[in-house]
Write a structure and sequence with these properties.
about 100 residues, about 15% strand, alpha+beta, 7 helices, single chain
């Protein structure tokens, strides 16, 4: 069962909301990624770190909270991690919010 409290807490950050927003159009926001097409493989942590202008460990923590909440999936290629939105999980959370508020 999905922990709705954990999901709600994951959304309680401007940085995490920005990440989710940017990842709705990864090819637009991260078009300079050279490793692969962002919409196909996800977005590299390094590029998200640059866009947020935060330290990499801080960004990694934000990404991990979103991943644990089910809003992101991670694709490991070599030593790099690429993140994508989990649209099914986000849609389910939206339905739950609509049903309970």
């Amino acid at each position: 069962m999905t922990d709705r409290l954990e999901q709600s807490k994951a959304l309680a950050s401007a940085a995490r909301l920005s990440i989710l927003e940017w990842l709705t159009k990864p090819d637009t926001h991260f078009s300079h990624q050279v490793t692969g097409t962002p919409s196909e493989i996800g977005v590299c942590v390094t590029l998200i770190t640059e866009k947020l202008d935060m330290a990499q460990p801080t960004v990694s923590r934000h990404l991990e909270l979103l991943r644990r909440a089910g809003f992101l999936s991670v694709n490991k290629i070599g030593r790099w991690s690429f993140f994508q939105r989990d649209e099914a999980a986000i849609s389910e959370f939206k339905r739950w919010i609509n049903d309970h508020l």
